[in-house]
């Protein structure tokens, strides 16, 4: 892939053009960019030397990827300059593109996707047989880590995550962009507000111009099927191979499937709705995705409106403070 692109060097103190800034978390037509340092950052073609320096020569100490499904590729944490926030840099160990222009085309197309539930893709590098992608850095880990390892996610937060990812997929379908590589709990990330976002790296195909869908059949690589697997992850707290997802729920009641770490603190009614959605996604054979994503958003949004859901997990200190405050108020005279 040598000489596939010409890159412009990034000045160490380069700043994007000054425009009215969007305050962190403020929404504008369902679009938001939450990383303060990259609010107005233009999609950039990076020099390999910039990304090498940003990741400390691709140091193993800077590796942040966890996904076993993508063992051939690595994601690093990096910093372009002191004036900017951290970035995530995905480096492809193998370069399967027959024509590097496909990589460039996919990266630029993915860079146009902007939504509050998508991690912003900042740019790419295509130089010296290297293919790299650069996105905002999400500081609060992946859904996989919080759900499978830390095992501390409350039911309300699980509902919130499901809703956020459904929003992301529905937005992508509205933009006629329904391809996603390996949607899973590893590609769901949490921003500094604690909201779930979908990694932008999955929008760039690693093997060009092939169609792995089989007409009329359920494919475990299908985005809707993968979302059904994520719903099962949220219900059970268990990492599930997509190919085993349907087998796991067959003939089982929702109470049998629920994550024991929830200790019964969940709504059986809501869990039943989520399980029904998961089952429908895992058996979805019609590849016109936008219809089902709209249904998913509507159903999951209705579950959100039943009660106020925190944007992130409350710390034990915060909970103790609230309990103390509540107790103090109860002792006051009428």
Describe this structure in words.
- This protein has helices at residues 48-54, 100-111, 143-150, 155-174, 223-236, 245-249, 254-257, 268-282, 289-304, 316-330, and strands at residues 44-45, 73-79, 86-92, 121-127, 130-136, 188-190, 196-198.
- The protein is of the alpha+beta class and 334 residues long.
- The protein has two domains: 38-136, Phosphorylase Kinase, domain 1; 143-308, Orthogonal Bundle (Transferase(Phosphotransferase), domain 1).
- Strand 6 (188-190) and strand 7 form a beta hairpin.
- Helix 5 (223-236) runs antiparallel to helix 8 (268-282) and helix 8 (268-282) packs antiparallel against helix 9 (289-304).
- The longest helix has 20 residues, at 155-174.
- It is globular.
- It catalyses: L-threonyl-[protein] + ATP = O-phospho-L-threonyl-[protein] + ADP + H(+); L-seryl-[protein] + ATP = O-phospho-L-seryl-[protein] + ADP + H(+).
- It comes from Arabidopsis arenosa.
- Its EC number is 2.7.11.1.
Mean pLDDT: 77
Low-confidence stretches: 1-9, 11-35, 208-217, 308-334
Please compute the radius of gyration using only Cα atoms.
21 Å
Proper CATH architecture of the largest domain: Orthogonal Bundle
In the sheet with the most strands, the strands line up as 1-4-5-3-2
Number of domains: 2
Please report the total strand number as a whole number: 7
Quaternary state, please? single chain
Individual helix count: 10
Question: Could you name the CATH topology of the largest domain?
Answer: Transferase(Phosphotransferase), domain 1
Identify the overall geometry: globular
**How is the main sheet built?**
5 strands, mixed
